Structures are given as C-alpha cells and as structure tokens.
C-alpha cells in the first residue's frame, strides 16, 4: 500500500478486515480489506461481479461476513445489522432506490427517522430538517410533492438527501450519477467535496472514471473478490485507472471507426411525441446517431414515439420506407424498428425465465413451423447469439442470475436475429462494467457498419462523443443542438444541454 | 420554493387528493340524484338510515384498503364480520353485558387480524392464501358460536347505534379521525412504505414485519366492528350475514382507486368508493331492481369506474 502523501491517517470510521463472504458456496469476497477514513473520498472500483455490492452490504450491516470482521471506530462489532450501522452513522445510497412513490419528498426523506412529538410525526420539525438537506442537494420542488411526480434523476437526488437527513459520518454512494443529468451530477460532485471537507468518510462507486478522478483521493480496486489495488489516486491517469480495474493494459474503450454514409432512412419534420416537441431529425443507414441532454428532456418520448409506443405526430415523415409513423409497436417491428429499453429488468427481460428463452423470444414466431415451435432452430439461434456476444454460462440458467452487464447483453442480443433496420437504444450501458461496455460499443459500430441505423440515447457523455456520427441534444423537449462529426465534444454537448449559446470548444 | 414551518402537513394532505376529483364529482352527482329521487334522506331519520346502510360497508372497505395499501388483501372480511355479529349477539344479553361484549368483539378482531398478520409477515406467505384459509376457519367458528340466526342485542343498544339518530355517521367521523392520527404516526407512513417498496422501507429502518402485523390487526378490528354494528342493526346475530362483504370491500377499495400491488391509493378515495357503492345499492334497491339485475349493474359500474379514469389519463398522456 502506498502511503497518503504528507497527510496523517485519521482513524478509520468503518473498516473491513479480511472479510470473506459467499453465496450458495460461491465465494464472492475472498479476504478483502478496506478502511473508510474521515475527510476522504474513497473510490471503490471493479467490474460487475467483482464483489462491490457485497462489500457495501457488509459495510452497511445488510450482510454478515463469513470470516473476517467489520470494525467501527476501532472496535470490532460482532452482530452488525442495518440498525447498528445506522446508529454508527453509516448511510448508503443504493442503486435501487428506497423511495415510496405515494409519499411526499419530505416524508420520504424522513422515512425511518421521523422526528416525533407525542408519538406522531412532527411535520414542523420534519420540514425544517428536510429544508436543510434539500438545499444541500439542490431540490427546489415543493417538499409536499409526491415522489411519483418526479423524474428518475430527481428521485436519485431525493435518495441522496434522505441519506444526509440522518447526519451520517460515513456516506456510501453506489453509482449515484447513473441516472443524473450532467447538471445534477455537478451538484452532487460539489456536495461530495463539501461533505469531505466537513469530515465525512465517503465511499464512491462509479463506472465513470472522470468522476472518480475528479472527486476521490484514494482507490480500492476489487477484482474477482480480492483487492488488486489500495492506493492514493494522486497522479493517476484514466488509462492507469482502467488498467487497475481490468488488471491488464486497457485497449481503448471505444472501437475505431470511420463514417459510412448510407441511404437516408429517417427524415422527420415537426415531430411531436409526449414531451418531445417540434423535432426535426434525419439519419442514414450506417450511422450511430446520439441523443443526449439532461435526463428527462423528452429524449425517451422521442424514441418511444418513433417506436410507436407513445402516440406521435409529425408534419413530414419518411421512416424505413414508410410515409407515416408507426402507430403501434407491432407496426414499428414490421418496419424493422427495434427498441431496447433502459429498465432491462422491467421492460425488456423475463427475469425468471432462462437466458435461452429470453434470447429467442422475439424470434420464436419467425422460427416456428406452422403451429409448432422449432426447438432445434431456437437452440441454434441461442448458441449463435451467446457466442457472438460472449454471454457466458449455461443458457438454461434464469436471466436474473446474470450480472447487470450480461443482462444488458441479453436484452440487446435478442433483437439481432431480426436484423433491425433501425435500432433504438435507451441508455444501454447504464450500470454496466467496462468490459461489457466495450463489447456493446463494438457491437453497435459493427451493426452500423452492416447498414443498421443505431439511435443511441445516452446519459454517458463520453460515449456520445466517441461513438456517434452525429448527436442531437435535447432541452425542454426540443432539439437544442445538432453536433456533426468533428464538432462533437463533451463541452459542446453539455453546453447545448444547458441551453448555452454555441461556443468553440476550449 | 420553500415550505414554511407547519404548512408541510397541509401540502401533503392536499396532494393526496390528486386524481380523485373525478371520483368526488361522481359521488356528488350520485348523491344529488339520490336526494332528488328520495328527498326524505334530508330528514334526520332519513340521513340516519342512509348512513347506517353505508357504515358497515365503509368500515370493511377501510379494513380492506388498509391491507391493500400495505401490499396485502383479505378474503376473510365477510366471515370476520359474521363472527363479530354472532359474538355480539351471544354475549351482550348475557352476564358480560354490552360493554363486555364490545370488548370481546374488539379483542377477537384484533387477535384474529394479528394472527393472520403474523403468519403473513413472519412466514412470508401470500396474504391472499392465508386469508382464504382463514375465511373457512373464521366462518366455521362463527357457525360454531351460533349455528343458526339468533341471539340478541339489547334493544336500547340497537336504538342507540341504529335508531333514528345518526350515531353511525358520528362513529364514522371518529374512525376517520383515528385513521388521520394513525397516518400521522411513523407506523402509519411505514404502512405505505412497506406496501410500495418493502426492501427500501426495510433499508430505511421501517420495521416492515411489525407494520404488517399492525395493519392486519387494525383491519381485523374494523371488520368485527362492522359485524357488531350489523348485529345491532338487525337486533340479532346471523353466522353468514357477512358473506357479501368480502367482495364488496374489495369493490369499494378498487372504486376508490386503491391499487392491488400495495402503496397506491388513499383512504379518502376508498371511503368515497364505499359511499358510491352504498348509494348505488340503495338507489337500485329503492328503484325496485330485482336482486340479480342489481348485481349485474354493480359489476358493470365497478368496471366502468375503474376503466374510465384509466382511459382518460391515457388520452391525456397521448
């Protein structure tokens, strides 16, 4: 372990020493050490399945280690529990939100820690406490607004406010920015640094390396359940960070590609769907067209409108050879349009069914002979897709047994046999590890090279910059900027998303 | 925008009316129609009679909505109403007297509910199965207590509860105030939380199991009190009198916008739903619909009441 330069080490607030933990005889953590110290933002990196979630659960008392110990304030705790962790001041912001949709922002923030008076919730005191944390995280909405009225990015901010409401000494953030807009992520970054200066110990888990480099001063890297690095981040470059994570020299995350100008396949004028307003859009076969902007600015409605899942209208339409918009998902599928939703668990996969069934599902009808399913053709299809996408393991296993990244691969792969002319993707790499990201990127460019139009909606700005031929940036339902190849940069995208006047990238 | 101290509670309460405007208007329209058809309902006795017909349905709908908000459901509402009625009818004229009878009924409801809740929460069994099994057991016990209609509720008690004064309405107001207080406790809010997002609620420190048991116990209490009232209304006990209450309680809750998956809907909606249902049943009864037609009409109205707001909101989204 390399020492922190010129800084005395504070005693760790919470620490894991040599923890082991497995599930069903399958070891996930094999003797892991980590120490969260006050006044330090500590990054935890590792690919999906490396054991990060398990480690978080051990540090927050949701799981007990099979061997090794968790130490709070220098003392070993024998029966750690979520309750004990809360008392010790450990707050966790999990990827899966813990919010209740019908309760208000304030009632959610206070849940489980309500100030009481005569056994009742003291709404006056609650409002005051909530006001403080809402200011910290920049929640402007009325505190009485029910959660169900907020977009996902705002809910994430409420979740963070909820963690802060308990005045924690240790804050564990698991992929906090995956559903945040660039602006919200900026607010969060400022907040994290401020909390650090106030003496909190912060554990920061993210797949976004520039965030990690900007915020964290120390990193622990997990690989296959063991710590491969526990060192200061001072002077570490993104490439080195990637190397630390994958444990080998990282090739570039993005494939190299050159623009292929195919035939125009989509042209829309004055397209409206849901909150998307007056969008003009055109694209050619062989392009990867990015759709970016802050979260919830109409991008999703734009995609779903093209897919016939949300009612849409337009002044002029030409899409996949049709002069009218698809009125239904079936009509869109018939035109060769496929859509991969963001919420793979709810909208795209049948979690309890096998990998094989999930992969074959869109093709079962096409492969069938008469009234009967063709098991043989299905099996061939499944093994072909598994091989092409490097989906590991027995395809008879249920999809829910796979890691997030592999689930996403299944969600994508199932459309490939239909050879879609237009592939609409809604944030395909959210919460996906680097290796899988790289595979997905390569696949998207390969599809484009085969003449597919890939429309990639993403909250991850680097992938818009490096993967797309052109990027449409949405703001308040309208296209606020179209960036052509060569002019795409993170600055330009964020600028257009924030409605700033166009300026030369620095 | 900041919320001044003290106004948060009011804002929260106001937003709970979201999406209920249509239902309120529908109930108001039906009540106006009711009053114009039967102006007698505006007299004290008429009002008392109407609210007496509504009261037990309101109680069981609340009992059902309480569980549905918590992500459960009960199929033993009807038998439990019957059990409450037969216990009241067999004890109140005996040595225990009216106060003893009320206590025994209440304890039975709380106890039966708590047992169901414990089985559901601790053994993680589906509420629908546990309460289905429970409905046979509770129904059987009711028949053991009083094999055929009989027993007696003292006349003065019947008169006090279900006479010419709107005691039932006042009791209902009392129950509503009780619910308001309960919903201002951490446990009350935990009820929603555990229904909508059990894992999140658990991680937030809500005692999900305890909340579930409390929900079942309170639901049992409301149910047997409905039974007690029915016994007072009829002056005697009937071991199967509650039978239609199970489905009516679900109908009332669903009409009121309470969802089946937990955490969706409000008690005020459920109450409005039960009022709608009660007024409908009364109107059809007084207009002389044959019972069979009543059931068919009831079913159609429930489907329409659930479908129309859904279709309207879909049109709005488009």
Automatic annotation (TrEMBL), chain B:
Source species: Mesorhizobium liriopis
CDD domains: TM_PBP1_transp_AraH_like
Task of the protein: Part of the ABC transporter complex LsrABCD involved in autoinducer 2 (AI-2) import. Probably responsible for the translocation of the substrate across the membrane.
PANTHER family in the record: ABC TRANSPORTER PERMEASE PROTEIN YPHD-RELATED-RELATED, AUTOINDUCER 2 IMPORT SYSTEM PERMEASE PROTEIN LSRD
Membrane topology: Multi-pass membrane protein
Signal peptide: none
Top-level lineage group: Bacteria
Alphabetical UniProt keywords: Cell inner membrane, Cell membrane, Membrane, Transmembrane, Transmembrane helix, Transport
Assembly and oligomerization: The complex is composed of two ATP-binding proteins (LsrA), two transmembrane proteins (LsrC and LsrD) and a solute-binding protein (LsrB).
Pfam families listed in its UniProt record: BPD_transp_2
Subcellular location(s) of the protein: Cell membrane
Protein name (database record): Autoinducer 2 import system permease protein LsrD
Record-linked InterPro entries: ABC_transp_permease
Ranges that cross the membrane: 21-42, 102-123, 128-147, 167-192, 213-234, 240-262, 269-289, 295-312
Main location: membrane
């Amino acid at each position: 372990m390399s020492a922190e330069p010129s800084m005395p080490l504070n005693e760790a607030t919470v620490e894991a020493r040599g923890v082991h933990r497995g599930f069903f005889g399958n070891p996930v953590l094999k003797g892991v050490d980590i120490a969260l110290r006050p006044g330090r933002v500590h990054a935890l990196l590792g690919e999906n399945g490396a054991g990060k979630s398990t480690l978080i659960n051990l540090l927050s008392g949701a799981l007990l280690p099979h061997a090794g110990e968790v130490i709070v304030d220098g003392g070993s705790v024998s029966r750690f529990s979520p309750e004990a962790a809360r008392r010790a001041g450990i707050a966790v912001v999990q990827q899966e939100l813990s919010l209740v949709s019908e309760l208000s922002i304030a009632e959610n923030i206070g849940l489980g820690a309500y100030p009481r008076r005569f056994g009742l919730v003291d709404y006056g005191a609650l409002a005051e406490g909530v006001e403080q944390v809402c200011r910290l995280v920049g929640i402007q909405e009325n505190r009485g607004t029910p959660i169900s009225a907020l977009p996902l990015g705002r809910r994430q901010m409420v979740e963070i406010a909820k963690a802060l409401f308990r005045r924690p000494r240790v804050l564990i953030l698991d992929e906090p920015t995956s559903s945040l807009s660039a602006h919200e992520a900026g607010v969060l970054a400022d907040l994290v640094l401020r909390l650090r200066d106030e003496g909190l110990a912060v554990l920061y888990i993210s797949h976004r390396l520039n965030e990690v480099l900007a915020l964290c001063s120390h990193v622990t890297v997990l690989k296959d359940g063991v710590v491969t690095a526990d060192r200061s981040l001072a002077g570490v470059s993104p490439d080195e960070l990637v190397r630390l994570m994958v444990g080998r020299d990282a090739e570039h995350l993005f494939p190299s590609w050159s623009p292929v100008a195919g035939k125009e396949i989509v042209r829309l004028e004055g397209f409206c769907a849901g909150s998307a307003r007056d969008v003009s859009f055109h694209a050619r076969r062989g392009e990867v067209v990015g759709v970016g902007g802050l979260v919830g600015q109409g991008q999703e409605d734009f995609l779903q409108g093209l897919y016939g899942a949300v009612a849409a209208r337009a002044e002029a339409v030409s899409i996949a050879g049709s002069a009218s918009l698809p009125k239904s998902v079936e009509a869109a599928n018939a035109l060769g349009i496929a859509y991969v939703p963001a919420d793979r668990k709810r909208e795209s996969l049948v979690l309890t069914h096998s990998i094989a069934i999930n992969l074959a599902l869109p093709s079962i009808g096409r492969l069938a002979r008469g009234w009967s399913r063709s098991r043989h053709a299905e099996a061939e299809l499944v093994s072909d897709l598994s091989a092409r996408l490097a989906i590991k393991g027995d395809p008879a296993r249920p999809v829910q047994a796979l890691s997030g990244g592999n689930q996403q691969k299944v969600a994508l792969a199932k459309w490939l046999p239909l050879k879609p002319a237009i592939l609409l993707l809604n944030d395909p790499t959210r919460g996906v590890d680097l290796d899988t990201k790289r595979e997905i990127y390569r696949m998207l460019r390969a599809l484009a090279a085969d003449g597919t139009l890939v429309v990639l909606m993403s909250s991850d700005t680097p992938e818009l910059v490096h993967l797309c031929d052109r990027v449409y940036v949405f703001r308040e339902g309208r296209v606020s900027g179209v960036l052509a190849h060569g002019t795409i940069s993170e600055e330009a995208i964020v600028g257009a998303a924030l409605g700033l006047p166009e300026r030369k990238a620095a | 925008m900041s919320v001044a101290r003290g106004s948060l509670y009011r804002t929260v309460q106001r937003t709970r009316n979201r999406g209920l405007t249509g239902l309120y208007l529908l109930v108001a329209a039906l009540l106006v129609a009711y009053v114009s058809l039967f102006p007698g309902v505006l007299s004290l006795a008429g009002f008392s009679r109407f609210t007496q017909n509504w009261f037990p349905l309101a109680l069981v709908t609340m009992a059902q909505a309480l569980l549905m908000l918590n992500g459960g459901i009960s199929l033993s509402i009807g038998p439990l109403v019957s059990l409450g009625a037969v216990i009241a009818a067999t004890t109140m004229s005996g040595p225990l007297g009216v106060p003893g009878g009320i206590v025994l009924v209440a304890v039975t409801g709380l106890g039966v509910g708590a047992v169901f809740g414990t089985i559901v929460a601790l053994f993680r069994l589906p509420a629908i199965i546990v309460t289905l099994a429970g409905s046979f057991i509770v129904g059987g016990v009711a028949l053991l207590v009083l094999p055929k209609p009989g027993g007696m509720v003292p006349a003065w008690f019947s008169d006090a509860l279900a006479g010419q004064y709107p005691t039932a309405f006042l009791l209902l107001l009392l129950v509503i105030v009780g619910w308001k207080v309960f919903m201002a406790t951490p446990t009350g809010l935990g009820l929603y939380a555990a229904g909508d997002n059990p894992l999140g609620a658990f991680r937030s420190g809500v005692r999900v199991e305890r909340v579930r048991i409390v929900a079942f116990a309170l639901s049992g209490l409301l149910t047997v009190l409905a039974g007690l009232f029915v016994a007072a209304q009829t002056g005697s006990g009937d071991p199967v009198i509650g039978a239609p209450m199970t489905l009516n309680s679900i109908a009332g809750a669903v009409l009121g916008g309470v969802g089946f998956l937990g955490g969706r809907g409000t008690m005020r909606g459920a109450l409005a739903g039960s009022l709608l249902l009660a007024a409908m049943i009364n109107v059809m009864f007084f207009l002389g619909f044959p019972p069979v037609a009543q059931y068919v009409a009831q079913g159609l109205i429930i489907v329409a009441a659930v479908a129309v707001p859904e279709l309207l909101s879909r049109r709005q989204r488009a």
